[in-house]
Design goal:
single chain, mainly beta, 8-stranded antiparallel sheet, 2 helices, about 40% strand
């Protein structure tokens, strides 16, 4: 099974012993979700969350985008990406402050990892495997509307590199702030 991905490589649906079907990104593929272009324009958002499972296929060379929105000509509305052995950063741009990035978190091996990034109108909070890892200093304002589609599996649409190599599953985007209990429930659903 494949999901055609425009001018980039196809995203393959593969069987995984741990999770069943998952999307495989070969380091040259991206899934572009055009209907997410104006997610932050239709209703100005001060509460937003994104969560997903991923498993790297060997070492990541450079940055590999997991999911972002609005990264076509300017910094993205939001962004989660990995680097060699790390969940490199999570960021969200608001009307008040541009590009709040969180510190790197180590992710090693060939294991499935759950990440969640939550913007609650006051700060950006990052979770790995159901556990809060860090939060930003005060961050207020609406999430910026970048008028660009969501990219899954690539750092951004204007990048010539930044492809992710590995598996992803159960990507969820919320127009609300998940609580730590919500994130823990999402993590426990798989375990």
């Amino acid at each position: 099974d494949t999901i055609p991905a425009d001018k980039y490589g196809d995203v393959k649906l593969t069987d995984d012993a741990a999770v069943g079907k998952s999307a495989y990104f070969d380091g040259h593929s991206v899934l572009v979700v055009n209907y997410m272009t104006n997610i932050f324009n239709s209703v100005p958002m001060q509460h937003f969350s994104v969560a997903l499972w991923f498993k790297m296929d060997g070492p990541q060379l450079g940055l590999g985008g997991l999911v972002n929105n609005g990264h076509c000509y300017t910094p993205p509305s939001f962004d989660v990406h990995v680097g060699p052995g790390t969940v490199s950063t999570g960021s969200v741009d608001t009307h008040g402050v541009a590009g709040k990035h969180l510190p790197d978190f180590s992710v090693f091996g060939d294991d499935w990892v759950h990440v969640a990034m939550v913007y609650n109108g006051q700060q950006l909070v990052f979770y790995v495997n159901g556990v809060q890892q860090s939060h930003s200093e005060q961050l207020t304002g609406y999430v910026e509307n970048r008028q660009c589609p969501m990219a899954i599996g690539r750092q951004g649409l204007d990048e010539t590199q930044g492809f992710f190599r590995g598996h992803m599953d159960d990507l969820r985007v919320y127009t609300k702030s998940l609580t730590s209990d919500d994130v823990q429930r999402l993590y426990n659903m798989r375990m």
